[in-house]
Specification:
mainly beta; about 180 residues; Chitinase A, domain 3; 2 domains; 2 helices; 8 strands
């Protein structure tokens, strides 16, 4: 079966920056809905017409991936507003920001705590891969028809480089931030 709109593709990949540094490796196949919300448009376009076993190499500029780094999504917040056990690298949903944080901070963004100082901390609402050109080596492990449920949801439940948030607004699995 060839990859077309409204099918499910199981992929493995290696993601690198333009200097060749490996950013993420997915050894076990993960399913994504083509024609839904799971994959970046440029990846979907590159996969069209391919079948199981195909290997696809892509170069993604920031505008084709996670956008340019936006300094307007950096916020300096009072340290006292956050729990004592908070650490650099933790993520917080914008809807869960403590009362008293900057009212201009968008609430529909996932923030990463990038720096902690005695009196304040830095919240970064940019995707961790924003502003970075990427090289992606994909392998198509399987292709199947999508179910009505998957088509209705627009997803297989796994978005490309989705940061999953679990209880207490922290990553569901801190070792799995990219997929």
């Amino acid at each position: 079966m060839e990859i077309t709109e409204q099918c499910v593709v199981a992929l493995t990949w290696t993601l690198k920056d333009t200097l060749g540094e490996t950013l993420d490796v997915l050894d076990e196949p993960v399913e994504f809905l083509v024609g839904g919300h799971d994959l970046l448009p440029k990846i979907e376009a590159a996969l069209q017409g391919h079948a199981r076993g195909a290997k696809v190499d892509l170069h993604l500029e920031p505008e084709d991936a996670f956008g340019d780094f936006d300094e307007n999504l950096l916020f300096l917040e009072p340290r006292a507003l956050f729990p004592a056990e908070i650490e650099e690298g933790l993520t917080i949903e914008g809807t869960a920001l403590p009362e008293g944080t900057n009212p201009d901070a968008p609430r529909n963004v996932l923030y990463t705590i990038t720096e902690i100082y005695p009196e304040h901390l830095v919240l970064d609402g940019n995707h961790p891969l924003s502003g970075i050109a990427l090289r992606l080596h994909l392998k198509v492990e399987a292709v199947r028809e999508a179910t009505e449920s998957e088509i209705g949801q627009g997803s297989c439940g796994t978005g490309f480089f989705k940061i999953e948030v679990g209880e207490n607004h922290q990553p569901a699995d801190p070792n799995r931030l990219l997929h």
